[in-house]
Amino acid sequence: MANIKLFLVPVCIWTILFNTSNATRSRPPPKFPAILVFGDSTVDSGNNNDIDTLFKANFRPYGKSYPGHTPTGRFSNGRLIPDFLASALNIKKAVPPFLKPNFSDHELVTGVSFASSGSGYDDETNAVFQVISFPKQIDMFRNYTARLKSLVGERKAKRIIGGALVIISTGTNDISTFKMDTNDTRYQDFLLNKVQSFTKQLYDLGCRSMIVAGLPPIGCLPIQMTNKQQPPSRRRCLHNQNLYSKAYNQKLVNTLLQVQTKLSGSKIVYADIYRPLIHMIHHPRKYGFVETNKGCCGTGFVETGPLCNPTTPTCRKPSRFLFWDAVHPSQSTYWYLSKYLKKTALSKFL
């Protein structure tokens, strides 16, 4: 009996070590220590909840597919691209908003979103919608940096920020709402100058790894088709608006290459949103979608924000809809986009 006990001791120790080793191998350390997010409603995880604006999504049916069926302020039925990327990179399961009351030290250290729904590169856009402008988002980042230094010390804070993955996603509100003149591309150049300025400011504040998203096929957003008064049975993507998006995106690619050459030690990567989205629209069944030209909420033609509210009916299966409301993609769409970005944009870092 004593011999059996002596035999079992090393077996148990070996089993524990083997399982611990497997667990370590199954969850490798994250490539990025934190994720920092700037932009509009495509990446705002709830900052607008705490400001005076109509651009809120902290009520049902938003969050219908989020864990706990909880409306968080995300303009979708569930998670956004930063949430999926943070999870895939083993950073965290979801990216909290910087203005979230009393978030934990761990949430602070591993990154937050400074984004504000309705915002853009253009200050006129931000003023009209009364949201957090990009300069103010950078000010919030400065406050974040100060809090991080007080928590972990200046040296470690510098390492975290220098190693963090920075995501920037905005521009659609600027162009789709006010300034889309398909015969005049000067406004594109104005926005691209803003891109250069803001990426330089983030670089000066210590950021080195940035992903900057291009425009989606704006002409395929349900609200844009509705604005052109297309009858429901004949709704089609607006070709000229999509050409405008493509032209801007090509300029953005060139701009980011120029910016990176000027900022020593930086890696600034273009995130192509247009190509995967247009592929989903043209080949919906490959992704499990049955509806691509209207949202799941209400009629799907105009409802977003206050019009998509607890009294508004929604489709039974949001995963079959490319759009959640008349402007924003569904969680399923964001999931496919995050997979595409991991293979393309993120692969340039990994």
TrEMBL record:
Pfam families: Lipase_GDSL (PF00657). Gene3D superfamilies: SGNH hydrolase. Residues 1-23 form the signal peptide. Transmembrane segments: none annotated. Keywords: Signal. InterPro entries: GDSL (IPR001087), GDSL_lipolytic_enzyme (IPR050592), SGNH_hydro_sf (IPR036514), SGNH_plant_lipase-like (IPR035669). GO terms for molecular function: hydrolase activity, acting on ester bonds. It comes from the Eukaryota. SUPFAM superfamilies: SGNH hydrolase. The keyword Signal applies. Belongs to the 'GDSL' lipolytic enzyme family. This is GDSL esterase/lipase. It comes from Dovyalis caffra.
